[in-house]
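Section 5: illustrative case.
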């Protein structure tokens, strides 16, 4: 070492200690964090130090196997090799160091140490003096009974046990209870997959218990919370671990309590907040855990308070200002009400504050005294009033401020924008007006009342600008240079797009002008963008031809949405070979011609909407190799011919929405082709999410489209991946309905109306249990309505009119809830809700007869009078006696639920859902 040449006496060198006898024997060597690399050989002289008692080589880079010659140092009491860079098998010779009291072989390296031969039992069998065993990151790969018994049988004096991320299995063996001296237990990041044993509460000196990320389950024993010496308890990220809290007495030593992402429930005791030694409290992501705050006295040590995503409610007391050491507060996604107490301004150590997604109201306090504040998030509350500029003065460390989704008004606070460290400001969905101050990075002022902008925008360093859903008007403001995200959508901008707009978008990935009043053509300069991934000009009055260079030159484009404009001419056949388009929406224009052949280059395409144009083409078999398709809309064009593609069995296995309505397709619906639409069959098993394109973390484009659902045109602002729809209506399809459609178990909407389909309604339609809308009207279908349709409990729209169906409409089922219009135009149908009743002839066939009667049936009249009289005896007392009504409803419900147990289950589910909704509200 460089410093070892300072004096001739090595006992005075840094990192070296000698015995007190003056013999010059080195007994301690500390070379930790010295940047040593390479191996250890005899030339180092290390293994000649026979009297060495303490050796620390931690945090170096030896990058070699652990030398067996460490066994020569037989006087070692402490051996620390944490993250020293040693790899491979731990040698058996380490077990010869019988005087060891502390052994640390922990590692963070993926290619670190392992214990196979010898295993853990062999390593510790002779180390009876050991008090500290730290093997974090060592690959031990042992079962619970094996490693537990190995420790309990060989290490009776063990005080510190740390084996995190060691590939250990559970459960915790009962033999571990014999290690009565244990004070620290760290076993996090192992797959214990077992309940927490009661014996952990019996360690008389336990100060730290860390079992995070261990897949624990069952009920956590309350007695562990009452260990008087316990300072750290970490059970976080054990989602199957359940429990509740006892009352906490005041003579506890608890400093850190981490229970985030577990499944604790019940009422959290307020006494925990009053533990004078408690410094860190993390209960976040326990959605069933309820509670409220007590009054806080001044002599508390609380520094970190994390209660996000629990079920706490009530108000935040003024006494929170007494917690002088509090530096981090996270209470997001709860049910707190009332005002944010002004005393929070006294928390001078505060650096992180998140009160978002609650029901706080009133004005926000000043934060001027919290000079260390870096993060403030108050989004989605009911906060009101103006925000004085003085609230933010002197906060030179502030980087993130979120005040969105409240009811703030007045001018935007200029002092907030003047903070030099500021990177992110989110003020969306308020009532701010006035001018936008200069700002360097992220700015979200969407959903406000901004009417006018300073032109040009003097925001030279801005990278993200979101102004959508304001009342901005006039011409489009030229965005600042170096911008990466621009959203001007849903305003009142008029006139045309500036001809040079593309010159300012050289580094832009997202550009949206949708839902304005723009006219004119798309300027050619838009093709000058090099990094553009999303271009949305939809819902304007733009006209002219789609520029070829837009499609040909932009090889990074993922989303192109030109829907609902007045574009005409042909779709440019210029899609590049490296096309990465995910969404192409050209619907609602005046486009003609055919589907471009080069579109087949876009093998990543998921959403294609060409609906409501004048395209005259055959079925787009040229797209048959695009396996990523989710949405195909060709609605209201002049497509013709057969559907399906000759020479192949099928395509598009992920397809979930198909709309071919109002075209001139003919022939049969091909069974083989439909068979491969697996997305129609598997949608019910998909995760509930939306079709979207994510540009960066937290920034994404949301796909949308128009679909016809239950006879109405609806705008799907977000397309759920579980929404499955098929519309083949208003074509010339003929022949029977393919049985394979009965496999589309995830269908919500099916429309085959206004074709020339024949044959029977397939009984397999009874498998479409998610179906909400079924339209088979205006065909030539025959036979009876299958009884299986009565199983479709979600069906709310049914139209079987104008076919050749016959026989009785199924009774006592969902069919009886539809109007007669759903069945009209079928001369052979009878029974309610139609006006024709059915009678049975001797041949077991049904005939129709009128409801009108020419004779008076006195027997029938007397039965009716008796029925009315009996009904009155029962009904009148129920109308005028509340106690009778309560008794009657309770007992009738009990009878009904016994007959229909599924109804009882659904009723309970709806009740629980209503309770959750009331909590959210």
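Designed sequence:
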């Amino acid at each position: 070492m460089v410093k070892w040449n300072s004096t001739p006496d090595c006992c005075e060198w840094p990192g070296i200690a000698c015995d007190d006898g003056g013999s010059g024997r080195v007994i301690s060597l500390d070379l930790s964090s010295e940047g040593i690399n390479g191996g250890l050989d005899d030339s180092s002289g290390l293994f000649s130090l026979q009297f060495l008692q303490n050796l620390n080589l931690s945090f170096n880079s030896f990058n070699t196997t652990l030398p067996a010659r460490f066994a020569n140092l037989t006087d070692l009491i402490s051996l620390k090799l944490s993250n020293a860079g040693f790899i491979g098998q731990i040698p058996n010779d380490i077990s010869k160091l019988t005087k060891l009291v502390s052994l640390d072989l922990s590692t963070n390296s993926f290619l670190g140490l392992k214990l196979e031969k010898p295993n853990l039992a062999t390593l510790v069998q002779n180390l009876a003096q050991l008090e500290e065993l730290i093997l974090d990151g060592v690959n031990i790969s042992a079962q619970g009974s094996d490693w537990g018994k190995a420790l309990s049988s060989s290490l009776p004096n063990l005080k510190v046990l740390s084996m995190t991320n060691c590939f250990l299995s559970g459960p915790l063996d009962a033999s571990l209870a014999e290690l009565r001296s244990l004070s620290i237990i760290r076993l996090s990041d192992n797959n214990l997959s077992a309940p927490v044993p009661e014996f952990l509460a019996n360690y008389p000196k336990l100060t730290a218990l860390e079992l995070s990320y261990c897949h624990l389950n069952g009920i956590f024993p309350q007695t562990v919370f009452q260990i008087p010496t316990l300072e750290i308890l970490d059970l976080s990220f054990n989602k199957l671990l359940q429990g509740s809290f006892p009352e906490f007495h005041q003579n506890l030593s608890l400093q850190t309590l981490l229970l985030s992402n577990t499944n604790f429930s019940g009422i959290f005791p307020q006494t925990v907040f009053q533990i004078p030694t408690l410094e860190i409290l993390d209960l976040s992501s326990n959605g069933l855990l309820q509670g409220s705050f007590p009054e806080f006295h001044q002599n508390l040590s609380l520094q970190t308070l994390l209660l996000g995503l629990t079920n706490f409610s009530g108000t935040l007391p003024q006494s929170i200002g007494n917690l002088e050491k509090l530096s981090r507060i996270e209470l997001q996604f709860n049910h707190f009400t009332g005002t944010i107490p002004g005393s929070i301004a006294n928390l001078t150590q505060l650096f992180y504050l998140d009160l978002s997604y609650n029901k706080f109201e009133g004005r926000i306090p000043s934060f001027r005294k919290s000079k260390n504040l870096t993060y403030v998030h108050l989004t989605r509350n009911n906060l009101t009033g103006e925000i004085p500029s003085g609230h933010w003065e002197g906060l030179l460390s502030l980087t993130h401020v979120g005040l969105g989704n409240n009811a703030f008004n007045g001018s935007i606070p200029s002092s907030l924008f003047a903070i030099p460290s500021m990177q992110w400001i989110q003020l969306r969905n308020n009532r701010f007006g006035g001018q936008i101050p200069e700002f360097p990075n992220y700015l979200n002022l969407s959903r406000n009342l901004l009417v006018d902008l300073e032109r040009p925008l003097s925001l030279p360093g801005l990278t993200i600008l979101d102004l959508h859903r304001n009342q901005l008007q006039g011409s489009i403001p030229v965005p600042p240079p170096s911008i990466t995200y621009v959203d001007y959508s849903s305003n009142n901008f008029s006139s045309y797009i500036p001809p040079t707009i593309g010159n300012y978008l050289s580094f832009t990935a997202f550009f949206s002008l949708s839902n304005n009043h723009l006219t004119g053509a798309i300027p050619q300069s838009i093709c000058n963008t090099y990094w553009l991934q999303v271009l949305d000009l939809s819902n304007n009055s733009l006209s002219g031809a789609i520029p070829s260079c837009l499609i040909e030159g932009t090889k990074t484009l993922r989303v192109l949405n030109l829907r609902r404009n007045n574009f005409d001419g042909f779709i440019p056949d210029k899609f590049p070979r490296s096309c990465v388009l995910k969404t192409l929406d050209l619907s609602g224009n005046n486009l003609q011609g055919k589907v471009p052949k080069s579109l087949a280059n876009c093998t990543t395409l998921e959403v294609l909407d060409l609906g409501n144009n004048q395209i005259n083409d055959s079925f787009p078999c040229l797209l048959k190799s695009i396996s990523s398709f989710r949405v195909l809309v060709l609605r209201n064009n002049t497509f013709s011919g057969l559907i399906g593609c000759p020479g192949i069995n099928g395509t598009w296995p992920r397809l979930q929405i198909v709309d071919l309505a109002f075209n001139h397709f003919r022939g049969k619906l091909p069974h083989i082709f439909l068979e491969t639409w697996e997305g129609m069959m598997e949608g019910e098993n998909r995760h509930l999410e939306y079709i979207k394109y994510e540009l960066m973390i937290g920034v994404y484009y949301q796909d949308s489209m128009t679909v016809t659902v239950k006879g109405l045109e609806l705008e799907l602002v977000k397309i759920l991946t579980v929404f499955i729809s098929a519309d083949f209506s208003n074509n010339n399809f003929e022949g029977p309905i393919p049985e394979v459609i009965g496999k589309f178990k995830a269908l919500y909407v099916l429309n085959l109306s206004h074709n020339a389909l024949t044959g029977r309604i397939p009984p397999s339609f009874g498998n479409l249990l998610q179906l909400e809308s079924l339209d088979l009207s205006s065909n030539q279908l025959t036979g009876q309505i299958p009884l299986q349709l009565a199983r479709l409990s979600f069906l709310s729209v049914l139209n079987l009119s104008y076919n050749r169906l016959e026989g009785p409409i199924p009774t006592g089922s969902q069919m009886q809830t539809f109007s007669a219009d759903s069945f009209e135009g079928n001369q052979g149908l009878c029974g309610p809700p139609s006006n024709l009743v059915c009678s049975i002839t001797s041949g077991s066939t049904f005939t129709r007869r009128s409801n009108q009667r020419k004779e008076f049936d006195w027997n029938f009249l007397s039965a009716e009078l008796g029925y009315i009289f009996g009904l009155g005896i029962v009904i009148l007392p129920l109308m005028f006696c509340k106690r009778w009504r309560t008794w009657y409803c309770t007992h009738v419900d009990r009878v009904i639920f016994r007959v229909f147990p599924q109804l009882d289950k659904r009723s309970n589910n709806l009740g629980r859902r209503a309770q959750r909704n009331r909590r959210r509200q």
